[in-house]
Design goal:
By secondary structure, the protein is mostly helical. It contains 8 helices and 3 strands. Strands 1-2-3 form a 3-stranded mixed β-sheet.
Length: 252
């Protein structure tokens, strides 16, 4: 049987993950719970934005009547509110925020169940390929090993360039091409290098996030410190005026 005939006789099927999820009561219930949580977070963000807008409008309206120290205090309060709002938005809706984590915790277990069922059906029903068309990229969920050409490619590259260290053992060479298992140090080194890059990038992201968090905390601390100093200055100013007022009230 030629390879063309084999390809024509291949059994291919597909699933629609989005459709499957939409028919699962457990997923729909979890999705509704998630939407409720997200709605609460969005309401909190809206409330904080409104409070921030009120602070800015009040300062704009009263600025001409306030002392420089009070203006500075209110400006610091606005900066603190802005920093707090940004931090909250990142916490809830950031790349690694609560929404991402919750969606993963809801969808991943169900997707794992679907994946396992696809593997079972693929083997029992004799399918060669099973695809998922829901993400628009036709992801392969199941593939018959007889369609795996990796070892053939490695064998050809090994013959072309022996210095690439892509060599199969004698036992693997003696096996049929469908059962070969490649020993490829060059690819393993490249995979390790890519993994190291990924880990390094994740570490950089974590360090950047930690630095941003520390900066926000430092700004809040500075705001609280300056606010306390301004309060102490006003209290001292009041106490300095008190003896003079009492003196003026004593009759001659």
């Amino acid at each position: 049987m030629s390879s063309v005939q084999a390809q024509r006789q291949a059994r291919v099927a597909y699933i629609d993950m989005d459709y499957i999820l939409s028919k699962l009561p457990s997923y729909l219930e979890a999705q509704r719970s998630l939407e409720d949580r997200v709605g609460g977070w969005q309401m909190e963000i809206a409330a904080r934005k409104l409070a921030l807008e009120t602070l800015e409008n009040d300062l704009s309206a009263q600025k001409a009547l306030l002392t420089p120290s009070l203006v500075e205090e209110k400006e610091l309060e606005i900066q603190s509110a802005k920093a707090s709002l940004v931090a909250y938005q990142q916490q809830r809706f950031g790349v690694q925020g609560d929404l991402f984590a919750l969606r993963t915790s809801i969808v991943q277990p169900i997707q794992d169940l679907v994946f396992n069922e696809v593997q079972r059906l693929g083997k029992e029903k004799g399918y060669d390929l099973i695809l998922d068309k829901s993400d628009g990229s036709t992801t392969i969920l199941f593939a018959n090993e007889r369609f795996n050409l990796s070892n053939l490619v490695i064998r050809a590259l090994s013959r072309q360039d022996m210095s690439a260290n892509m060599v199969l053992s004698d036992a693997e060479i003696n096996q049929g091409s469908e059962e070969d298992a490649p020993v490829n140090e060059a690819l393993e080194d490249k995979a390790a290098e890519e993994l190291e890059k990924i880990n390094s990038k994740e570490q950089q992201i974590a360090e950047k996030k930690a630095a941003q968090q520390k900066l926000r905390e430092d700004r809040l601390k500075a705001y609280e410190f300056r606010k306390q100093k301004l309060k102490e200055a006003r209290e001292k100013k009041k106490s300095d005026k008190l003896p003079a007022q009492q003196k003026d009230s004593i009759p001659e």
